[in-house]
């Protein structure tokens, strides 16, 4: 809006459309996804721009957003030696510098820190920024091409970002982002689970083997005891006729 003062100050909003799935930055007009997991297709968003003058003027346009179910393999990680809170506040300026130096349309997909704790996040001077670039034909630029251009323009990019952050900046190409659902912690947990399961199986096998041996030797002891008892003049043993022997001793033994 070419007006000055409040008449030139625009604020953006979503008038109609999937406001549960999308949100908009009221100052910049940048549209964000809120919750589109598992959803595909085209969404039609009605965006309104309004100035803040006495006679408030507005204009509207429709933005079509196509959500693809496939994940991109052309996401590139850029590591900045800045606190995550600072990078988040300056994300629009960071995107503008990257577009200017790379010559492509650049979108910042995610800004995060390795530290999950809030206090650690605020004290860690390293922030990872995931970006994706599109050429003039709106096609994704291959990740390797983006990495190569980032390395070639490293000095110019860092100089541009120094103006944004008012501090010396180091911008390095990071390793490819890990696939969703498979962080190092998850891999370690899986390995530990396998080891514990193997230990449990081995322990159960040992217990079963021990019980089996105990039963075997118990039966052998019982057989030995029975054999010993059969060799003794057991007054309760059966005679040949199947009846119990008398408890009385023979008369000749009394004599």
From TrEMBL:
An example GO CC term for this entry is: catenin complex
Q: Tell whether Glycosyltransferase is among the UniProt keywords.
A: no
Membrane spanning residue stretches: 186-209
What Pfam families does the entry give?
Cadherin
* Residues annotated as domain Cadherin: 1-77
Q: Which UniProt keywords apply?
A: Calcium, Membrane, Repeat, Transmembrane, Transmembrane helix
Protein's UniProt name: FAT4 protein
Q: Which organism is it from?
A: Urocynchramus pylzowi
The root-end lineage is: Eukaryota, Metazoa, Chordata, Craniata, Vertebrata
